[in-house]
């Protein structure tokens, strides 16, 4: 069965600094991977997804993620943090034919002025 | 248009009440989902409808009753809920139920059971 581990329940960075949110997956077959963002009292918004077309995936709001099969990782990065990036971030995995998305526990990103 | 709408935004109900949550999408998606999310936790899958048929029930108590009247609408009927059922209820949809298609989420209904 597939699973996702997000390293760090809380990450704090300064405005303008690099954002790195870590996600490792476990899957016996090629996975599909997603990053979602959730702002307070809102639903989840898709940031980006990996579906085997390219290992470096660019998403919305300047975020990108790199799929590394050898490390079973799909870390999310943004070169320069903005105050508006403060939110909860979820990594999720599914596989072809799977009937559901499996979420990690989430990482809360705080941006310091 | 990638919008999933949910009504109501907030709902307060007593343990003996009957209420319903509504979800709508007009993206032509054929899979729709209900999730429950407690504070500081990831969403937990409750139900999946695929082509208007219930395909997954994650052992949800019978006080939650889903309904999919047509391909655009998804309801969640609530009856005799418990205070621990208070949570954010999220609806989502995807093109189909296969793993490669992303799910689009609605803004959620904040439910409080008193």
Describe the structure.
The complex is a heterodimer of chains A (113) and B (114). With 113 residues, chain A is an all-beta fold. Helix content of chain A is 0%, strand content 57%. In chain A, the strands form two sheets. In chain A, strands 2, 4, 5, 9, 10 and 11 form a six-stranded mixed beta sheet that branches. Chain A has a five-stranded antiparallel beta sheet with strand order 1-3-8-7-6, with no helix packed on it. In chain A, a hairpin with a 6-residue loop joins strand 9 and strand 10 (102-103). The model of chain A has no long low-confidence stretch (mean pLDDT 93). Chain B is mostly beta strands and 114 residues long. Chain B has no helices and eleven strands. In chain B, strands 2, 4, 5, 6, 9, 10 and 11 form a seven-stranded mixed beta sheet that branches. In chain B, strand 4 (31-37) and strand 5 (44-50) form a beta hairpin. Classes of the chains: A mainly beta (113), B mainly beta (114). The A-B interface holds A 32, 34, 36, 41-46, 49, 51, 90, 94-101, 103-106, 108 and B 4, 6, 40-43, 45, 48, 55-56, 88, 90, 92, 97-100, 102-108, 110.
What is the element layout, followed by pairings?
The complex is a heterodimer of chains A (113) and B (114).
Chain A: E1 3-7, E2 10-14, E3 19-26, E4 31-38, E5 44-50, E6 56-58, E7 64-68, E8 73-78, E9 87-95, E10 102-103, E11 107-112
Parallel strand pairs in A: 2-11
Antiparallel strand pairs in A: 1-3, 3-8, 4-5, 4-9, 6-7, 7-8, 9-10, 9-11
Chain B: E1 4-7, E2 10-13, E3 18-25, E4 31-37, E5 44-50, E6 53-57, E7 64-70, E8 73-79, E9 87-94, E10 104-105, E11 109-113
Mean pLDDT of chain B: 94
> Helix and strand succession of chain B?
EEEEEEEEEEE
Oligomer: heterodimer
Total helical elements of chain A: 0
**What would the average pLDDT of chain A be, to the nearest integer?**
93
Which chain pair shows the most residues in contact? A-B, 25 and 25 residues
Radius of gyration of chain A, whole Å:
13 Å
Tell me what portion of residues of chain B adopts beta-strand conformation. over 45%
Topology, number of strands of chain A: 11
- Distance, first to last CA of chain A: 41 Å
What is the N-to-C succession of helices and strands of chain A? Answer: EEEEEEEEEEE
Find the structural class of chain A using helix and strand composition: mainly beta
**Main sheet record of chain A:** 6 strands, mixed
Question: What overall geometry of chain B do the principal axes of the alpha carbons give?
Answer: globular
- Distance from N terminus to C terminus of chain B (CA atoms, Å) equals 36 Å
Strand portion of chain A, in percent? over 45%
**Share in helix of chain A:** under 10%
User: Helix/strand/pairing class of chain B, anyone?
Assistant: mainly beta
What fraction, in percent, of the residue positions of chain B are helical? Answer: under 10%
Radius of gyration of chain B: 13 Å
